[in-house]
Amino acid sequence: MQLKDKVAVITGGAQGIGAGLARRFHAEGARGIVVCDLDGAGAERVAAEIGGLGLRIDVGREEEVHRLVENAVARFGQIDLFCSNAGIFTESDVFSSTGIFAKMRDVHVLAHIYAARAVLPSMLARGEGYLLQTVSAAGLVTSVESMIYAVTKHAALALAEWISMTYGDRGIKVSALCPQGVRTNMLMQTPENHLVKGSVSVEQVAEAVIEGLAAERFLILPHLEVLEYFRRKASDYDRWLRGMRRFRSELLHEKGPRS
């Protein structure tokens, strides 16, 4: 896909990767861009920069995702590319509250399902359309700090695979964006995070997305080393798990005892 003259919707677009995609899509000549976020004022600011439409949307509520799609179609006629980019992060383990799990599930999994339900009928009727889902390297490998993040991102990747498998022969393209550390507010507010080292800029992620969409690749990897991590995991799961135990132990030792 080339972005010129296309209409794109971006969730989680008030800052970070979403805002970077909005600006890059505009530079690529997109005809219309809808920027939405729970931070409605932030979404409107980014949209104002690029002559797009900014909306406050809670992607964890299906009726609001449908409203987003209705507004986008009313403004621009159709949606060529839907970017499910909204994401949140909370450190967690198996003892964390069900409420925290539900919140990340809603944003990382159900939001993608709501988007697919809202846009696939018209895309299938036209015989073309593109879904870009921001999954994270945690969906391919794991998250050391957050059990819930790892689980929901794995689920997001499985969903993207299923949609591609089921609708790919009917003109629906799917890409899973799986970055590792990206220099966004979410990462940089914890400078001790091990992902800060080796992190990339939002602009580098946007460049990888443009290249990935042009090639219509399923996996878009701003960090090429993630592919090697994924291969190692698949080739010898037990060895990979032993290595991850060591890695987690080293990280905990570096952080020291928690107060």
Question: What's the architecture, going by CATH?
Answer: 3-Layer(aba) Sandwich
- Mean pLDDT rating: 93
Principal-axes shape call: globular
CATH fold naming = Rossmann fold
Structural class assignment: alpha/beta
The CATH superfamily title: NAD(P)-binding Rossmann-like Domain
Number of domains: 1
Report how far apart the termini are.
Answer: 50 Å
CATH class assignment: Alpha Beta
Give a quick account of the main beta sheet: strands, pairing sense, barrel closure. Answer: 7 strands, parallel
Helical amount: 40-55%
- What is the CA-atom radius of gyration, in angstroms? 18 Å
Explain this structure to me?
This protein has helices spanning 16-27, 40-50, 62-76, 98-126, 147-167, 185-188, 202-215, 225-235, 237-255, and strands at residues 7-11, 32-37, 53-56, 81-84, 129-134, 172-177, 219-220. With 259 residues, it is of the alpha/beta class. The protein has one domain: NAD(P)-binding Rossmann-like Domain (Rossmann fold, 3-Layer(aba) Sandwich). A seven-stranded parallel beta sheet has the order 3-2-1-4-5-6-7, with helices on both faces. β1, α1 and β2 (32-37) form a beta-alpha-beta unit. The protein starts with 6 loop residues before the first strand and ends with a helix.
